[in-house]
Amino acid sequence: MTYLALTMHRPLLLEGEPGTGKTALAESLASAMQLPLIRLQCYEGIDADQALYDWDFSRQILHVRAATDGGSTADQIEDSLYDERFLLARPVLRALRESPAVLLIDEIDRADDEFEAFLLEVLSTNSITVPEFGTITATTPPIVVLTSNRTRELHDAMKRRCLYHWIDHPSLEREIEIVRERLPDVADLLAEQVVSLVQRMRAEESLVKRPGVAETLDWVEAMGLLGATHLDPAIAEATMGAVSKHREDAGRLHALLQARDYS
Predict the structure, then answer these.
(1) In the chain, which end has fewer C-beta atoms inside a 10 angstrom radius, N or C?
(2) Most distant CA pair in the chain: distance in Å?
(3) What is the pLDDT of residues 210-260, one digit of tens each?
């Protein structure tokens, strides 16, 4: 799907549970293509100004004072006040101006409907109009990757604009490969046993939050730093906070460890 998004010049929308590697895919794409990664982290209450641009008011005030002292007229000062040097580019504007680049719009589901509609318009035209400055259009459209943890449903218009891909937790074999690649100094047996236990933990329907790959890596690394070469229950209990962030989930993990349900 990534290849098709690149070939068809369409945004790629990645949905999945937290920790499944959605952000990592965008990072890997930028690294593989040797392009800058420009990230817009969405959150509740974000608005267009925080994604597009702002004016450097402090520098503008200093400019007005200097121009006044230098004898410039009011019209001259006004004409120079909204110069490009005072324009502070936020992630979306940066991506349009600096493209080719990868624009990562992370956790779009945290933003509200109005912000989603604004993004849809920008992605459709690859241009932004700054009233005081003019229209800025990308010479080369940026590669856009949007991620969503599905805390709310995105609008159909956004999904129609994008190519869609659901990212699930990796299989046992794939997750072991990831751990070995990211933590090559960790004992193979420890990696296999921890991944097996995390996979069993994810299968529990009563979990508050299923651990992601990032938590698996943290847990393996923590036990490795304490000298573990295999999944020792005592060390696992001592480092449980790396993988389980809720008391209820820690209790279930404790039961799995006591049952030695990780072989």
Answers:
(1) C
(2) 83
(3) 888 989 999 999 999 999 999 888 898 899 888 888 888 888 887 888 776
DSSP 227: T
How far out from the chain centre does Cα 98 lie?
Answer: 19
Count of residues for the chain?
Answer: 263
Instruction: Compute and round to an integer the Cα radius of gyration of the chain.
Output: 24
- CA angle (211 as vertex; 209, 213 as ends), nearest 5: 150
Tell me how many degrees the CA angle 216-218-221 measures, rounded to the nearest 5: 105
Contact (CB, 8 A) for 139 and 104? no
Reduced to 3 states (helix: H, G, I; strand: E, B; else coil), residue 41 is: strand
Q: What letter would DSSP give residue 229?
A: S
Could you tell me the pTM of the whole model?
A: 0.77
* Residue 131 · residue 48 · CB < 8 Å: no
13 backbone φψ class: left, alpha, beta (φ>0; ψ -120 to 50) = beta
Q: How far apart are CA 53 and CA 192, in angstroms?
A: 47
Question: Which tens digits make up the pLDDT trace of 70-115?
Answer: 666 666 666 666 667 777 888 988 898 888 999 999 999 998 888 8
Tokens linked to 154:
């995105």
Q: Measured between alpha carbons, how far is 144 from 11 in angstroms, rounded to an integer?
A: 5
Angle at the Cα of 47 from the Cα atoms of 45 and 50, rounded to 5 degrees: 115
Contacts of 180 (CB under 8 A, 6+ apart): 186, 188, 191
The helix, strand and coil proportions of the chain, stated in percent and rounded to the nearest 5, come to 50, 15, 35
Of 150, 164, 215, the C-alpha closest to 13 is 164
d(CA 199, CA 244): 13
Of 62, 97, 94, 98, which Cα lies nearest the Cα of 80? Answer: 62
